[in-house]
Amino acid sequence: MGLLKSIAQIKPSNNTETISDENAFEAERKTYHEDGFNTSKTCQGRPENLAASMEAIYNRYENKCREQELEQNKLKHPYITELKGKQTFIITRKEELERQQERLAATETQIENLRSDIIGVRRDPGAYGISADRRSTSKFWIGLLLLAFLTVYILIFYISTSFSAFFRTFNPSTELFSGMFYPQALQEAYDAGALELGFILFIPFVFFGLGYLIHMFWHKKSTINVLKVLLLFITTFIFDALLAYLIDEKLYNLDKTFEDPIYSVGIAFSSPSFWVIIFAGFVSYAIWGLVFDMVMKEHADRDKIQNYIATLEKEIRNILPKREKHKEEIHAIEKGIDEVKVRCSELENIIDGFILPIRNYKALSSEYLQGWMECVSSLIAMGHEETRQYLNACREVYDKHIKKLDLDTDTYQNKVYTKSL
User: Fold this and answer.
1) How many domains does the chain have?
2) In contact, 368 and 54? CB cutoff 8 Å
3) Which of the ends of the chain has fewer CB neighbours closer than 10 A, N or C?
4) Which of 130, 175, 204, 184 is CA-nearest to residue 273?
């Protein structure tokens, strides 16, 4: 179509107006009929001449449609209205897109701030109102390691000393160290019976209980709690003294002669081995209690930091779905705008082109064909069979002409030709 090409079709509408009123159209139909008759008469109705004539009348009709600006504006009015609506829609959606982008940016900033806070609280808990030492993690693990070693030592010490003090029989070769630490204590207690074994196994937990109570009482400092801690120390010290007394007595009796006095409290107080046994146990569980208290304190500090971090991470998890929702909405809006822009481009091309009322053209061209074929039938001297062949050939020329222009349809009234790019 020269600088024009067809890209769309318009379905019939009850409101579509024809190019001219009914009387004018009927007059035009008559003119096309007469023109077809006269042209056929001039060229003896040859089908090959009909093909050229059909091209000529189509070009004439197309040019006429182009020149009828008022009628074209009427036909294009629905497209102009649609274009304005689409353009308004784009403006509205762009405003919504900006709002969604601002919300997404605010959400991203919020997430980044929370992640920065997670890093910052580890470096400086005090800046976030948390009364905890940022080195609490390293102090916690060091304290936990010391606590583990002290626990093993206390288990070994009190299992050995308890068995030696209550169940073991010393021989003349027994010395102070072997009197306190006896490798066969568990085996011999097991051989002696379940009661003896249970006794020496669970005695260390009396001292672990002391360390735990120290932590609990010191956690809430008061005069009563301080007195309780002192009472616990005195009680366990007495128990340690009892163990040391029994072991030291057995060691004393190994070397005792008839001239030596019977072992007594006074002798125990003056015996270095007595005090060595006491402090080997007493100092160990006192240190264990203090280390346990420190470990629990550092663990509480770690909990404060970890709980704060967990709160921040929970906030991030709550925000992430909002961020994804904003992204989805932005994507949907952008996709919708792109689709409407494509339609706007189509509408602009339609408005820049022209609209051909194809039913009108088919009606007029059909009249032209009828005039042509009427001339062939009535004026041109040919045999019956030859006339029939001429008429069929003319009809084929017309059908090819309509099909070539893509007008062989009855489903729509107008055809839109858009401006070529």
Assistant:
1) 2
2) yes
3) C
4) 175
Pair (295, 384) in one structural domain: no
Phi, psi of 416 (to 5 degrees): -95, 130
Other CB atoms within a 10 A radius of the CB of residue 71 amount to 18
**pLDDT tens track of the chain, all 421 residues?**
332 333 334 344 444 444 345 777 778 888 888 888 888 888 888 888 888 888 888 888 878 777 766 777 777 788 888 889 989 999 999 999 999 999 999 999 999 998 888 888 777 776 766 665 555 667 778 888 888 888 888 888 778 777 777 776 665 555 555 556 667 777 777 777 788 888 778 778 877 777 777 777 776 777 887 888 788 778 878 877 887 787 777 776 766 666 767 777 777 787 777 787 777 777 787 788 778 877 777 776 666 777 778 888 888 899 899 999 999 999 999 999 999 989 888 888 877 776 777 777 788 888 888 888 888 888 877 778 888 888 888 888 888 888 888 777 665 566 666 554 4
Question: Residue 63 and residue 357: Cα distance in Å, rounded?
Answer: 13
- Domain membership of residue 44 (yes or no) is yes
Sequence-distant (6+) residues with CB within 8 A of 4 are 353, 354, 417, 418, 419, 420
Q: Are 379 and 371 in contact (CB under 8 A)?
A: no
**Boundary residue ending a domain (323, 341, 356):** 323
Q: Listing from the earlier edge strand, what are the strands of the sheet with 414-419? A: 4-10, 414-419, 354-357
CB 380 within 8 A of CB 387: yes
Computed from CA positions of residues 53, 57, 63, 66, in that sequence, does the dihedral angle turn out positive or negative? Answer: negative
Q: Which domain holds residue 387?
A: 4-94+328-419
First-to-last C-alpha distance (Å) of the chain: 13
SS3 357: strand
Q: How big is the chain by its Cα radius of gyration, in Å?
A: 55
Distance between CA atoms of residues 140 and 35, nearest Å: 109
**Which residue has 């274009």 as its token pair?**
83
